């Protein structure tokens, strides 16, 4: 009898271990493929820039030294430009384009890629106007002071404005570590904010948008913005003592990726937003960024049973996945009720 009970347990353990290794292999494949593509792309861009500018092999180093000489004695200004201004311009540049589609529904071909069909067509202008001030407040009154406070710690850990630039290959190592640190800190801080004691007072603000748009990615309570938006992306560079160039690229990428995750469109050749969009729709699933910890903790079980999970892939064509993998038709209930005998109330 005991042996009969132990057998299913062993099978369950082996299945869980298989899931863990499968998840780790997928993560390694994603990161490894991304790193290899980045190396090839960067080498190509650098070669073309060097030919265009007639620069030596130290093209980027030369440009960096010019910046250092311009801001000599005021390196903190250069730090703020690299950590706040440049990522902020990336954020608003990308979101400016998305807002045109969100508010006008044009161009029509982009609207075809909407994930939650029938939502935000167009976006509610009153709701949008009420949300934008919070986004600006978080950027100017939370992020900016926080970066100024962190600057001495970055200086202590390793001068972010040192003269020698990191090699691109070292930056790729840093990028992989930044991503893993963000996944861990964001997942657990995000789950904590879903605790009933914190959700209503803090995180519910972000979930006012059950069908999110890009600019809403940093629409959040100030406490959430510090704990779940800023700290997960700053701890990695701080722990590594990273160069400002690495921090600037990382923060810009992080803002672009979170915008894509919230944009509401599954666009061709961009990372899939289906995972986080489902979180906004259902609230209690898909807490992380990569999905690795959701897999390990079982917080993506419902998601995996949906068509959204089947659509959670990189779209390599131009046919919207909502058309090639449509949701099943919704069940319609009889007006007499489930049994057909009594009116449904």
TrEMBL record:
Region Disordered, annotated ranges: 325-345
Superkingdom: Eukaryota
Protein species of origin: Mesocricetus auratus (Golden hamster)
Name of this protein: Fatty acid hydroxylase domain-containing protein 2
Pfam families found in the cross-reference section: FA_hydroxylase (PF04116)
Ranges annotated as spanning the membrane: 28-49, 76-101, 135-156, 168-188
Cofactor(s) listed: Fe cation
Sequence ranges assigned to domain Fatty acid hydroxylase in this UniProt record: 176-299
Subcellular localization: Membrane
Origin organism lineage: Eukaryota, Metazoa, Chordata, Craniata, Vertebrata
Gene, per the UniProt record: Faxdc2
Chief localization: membrane
Keyword set, alphabetical order: Iron, Lipid biosynthesis, Lipid metabolism, Membrane, Steroid biosynthesis, Steroid metabolism, Sterol biosynthesis, Sterol metabolism, Transmembrane, Transmembrane helix
């Amino acid at each position: 009898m005991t042996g009969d009970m132990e057998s299913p347990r062993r099978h369950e353990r082996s299945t869980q271990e298989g899931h863990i290794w499968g998840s780790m292999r997928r993560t390694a494949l994603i990161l490894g493929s991304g790193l290899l593509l980045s190396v090839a792309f960067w080498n190509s861009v650098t070669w073309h820039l060097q030919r265009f500018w007639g620069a030596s092999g130290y093209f980027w180093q030369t440009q960096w030294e010019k910046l250092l000489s311009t801001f000599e004695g005021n390196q903190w200004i250069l730090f703020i430009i690299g950590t706040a201004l440049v990522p902020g311009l990336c954020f608003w540049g990308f979101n400016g384009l998305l807002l045109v589609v969100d508010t006008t529904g044009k161009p029509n071909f982009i609207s075809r890629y909407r994930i939650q069909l029938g939502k935000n067509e167009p976006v509610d202008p009153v709701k949008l106007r009420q949300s934008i001030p919070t986004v600006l407040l978080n950027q100017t009154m939370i992020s900016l002071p926080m970066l100024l406070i962190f600057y001495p710690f970055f200086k202590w850990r390793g001068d972010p404005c040192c003269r020698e630039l990191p090699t691109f290959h070292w930056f790729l190592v840093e990028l992989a570590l930044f991503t893993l640190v963000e996944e861990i800190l964001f997942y657990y801080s995000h789950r904590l904010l879903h605790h009933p004691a914190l959700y209503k007072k803090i995180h519910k603000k972000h979930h006012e948008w059950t069908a999110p748009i890009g600019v809403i990615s940093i629409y959040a309570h100030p406490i959430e913005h510090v704990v779940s938006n800023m700290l997960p992306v700053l701890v990695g560079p701080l722990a590594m003592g990273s160069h400002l160039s690495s921090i600037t690229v990382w923060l810009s990428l992080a803002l672009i990726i979170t915008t894509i995750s919230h944009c509401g469109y599954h666009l061709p050749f961009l990372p899939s937003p289906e995972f986080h969009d489902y979180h906004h729709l259902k609230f209690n699933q898909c807490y992380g960024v990569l999905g690795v910890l959701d897999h390990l903790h079982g917080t993506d079980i419902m998601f995996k049973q949906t068509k959204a999970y089947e659509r959670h892939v990189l779209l390599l064509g131009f046919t919207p996945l909502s058309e090639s993998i449509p949701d099943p038709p919704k069940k319609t209930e009889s007006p007499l009720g489930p049994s057909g005998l009594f009116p449904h109330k």
